[in-house]
Amino acid sequence: MAKRVCPVWVGYLLASPIRKLFQNPQRILSPYIENGMKVLDVGCAMGFFSLPLAQMVGSKGKVICVDVQEKMIRSLEKRARKAGLSNRIETRICHHNSLGLDDLKEEVDFAFASAVVHEVPDASRFFSEIYQTIKPTGRFLVIEPKGHISKKHFNITVSAAEQKDFKIIERPQIGRSHVVLLEKNVSLRF
Ligand SMILES: C[S@@+](CC[C@H](N)C(=O)[O-])C[C@H]1O[C@@H](n2cnc3c(N)ncnc32)[C@H](O)[C@@H]1O
Fold it and tell me: What is the pLDDT of residue 1?
């Protein structure tokens, strides 16, 4: 059964510029992003992180934004048009049980999921689908909100990722958040 997803009205709050005071997208993401990268923003909502990502990847890069709620995606598209970033942003509406990323096999340089994993019905499947999209050298940053999610629950999330052949490479510090930076455990393939 699907878990409760973030209501659209909360999407507006999450997109507020005031949030930058404690979660600055540039500061959080710039260590991982280079010009020309293909980035995946899963559970992007109205694009609080997607638009700064589109700026960071430059005109040759691409940000693929996936969300289960059409209203979130439509609002993101509007904001991207206003910011002149539509040509760097590709939007996708997915299903609760599938991100629909089969066409992106090992194409993604950097994947990002902020405050999303606790909403997906099957974390194992979620990690497995994202694993398929990431290049062998790619990385995946997962952030979960401390207010909502206990340390114990976050550890279960990280274990689900490890069971799908991700390995932990860092635990970056971000305000009010549990965070883990993952990469593919390619040694497990041999
Ligand atoms: C709390 S919001 C976080 C939005 C954004 N990542 C941020 O940090 O501002 C969670 C988002 O994940 C989306 N979501 C929930 N379940 C999902 C699923 N199964 N697949 C894709 N997106 C999902 C929701 O629609 C919502 O937009």
Answer: 42
